[in-house]
Amino acid sequence: MAKGHRSQIKRERNENKDTRPSAKVSYARVSVQKACFVLDAIRGKDVETALGILAYNPRYASTVIEKVLKSAIANAENNNHMDVSKLYIQECYANQAPTMKRIRPRAQGRAYRILKRLSHITVVLNER
């Protein structure tokens, strides 16, 4: 086949594909800074410990991250046939999503802008 042929490019791209189980939530209604407080607490921990931390964390972001983590665990168990007791959180990060702009009326006819920040939260697992 010719170099740069579409099928060859696809084949090479699929060979380099990341096979680690992961889950992602897009447009989560929590800011990146607030999500990172929770993500820093669970990074590098095994999944049982991380679920315990998330269950007793009072922040709103912990409920969102708990759902993402449970989804990643299910992906590892069903798609990759991994043992749940050996899993740990290898990577977890939050990226900024588009911000919703809202207007708040203020005194003397002025309008103040309110920024409702969103984030994309990703959790990547691996086996020890």
TrEMBL record:
Residues 9-21 have a biased composition (Basic and acidic residues). Residues 1-24 are annotated as: Disordered. The keyword rRNA-binding applies. Pfam families: Ribosomal_L22. GO terms for molecular function: rRNA binding; structural constituent of ribosome. Keywords: Ribonucleoprotein, Ribosomal protein, RNA-binding, rRNA-binding. SUPFAM superfamilies: Ribosomal protein L22 (SSF54843). GO terms for cellular component: cytosolic large ribosomal subunit. GO terms for biological process: translation. It comes from the Bacteria. Part of the 50S ribosomal subunit. Belongs to the universal ribosomal protein uL22 family. NCBIfam families: rplV_bact. The globular domain of the protein is located near the polypeptide exit tunnel on the outside of the subunit, while an extended beta-hairpin is found that lines the wall of the exit tunnel in the center of the 70S ribosome. This is Large ribosomal subunit protein uL22.
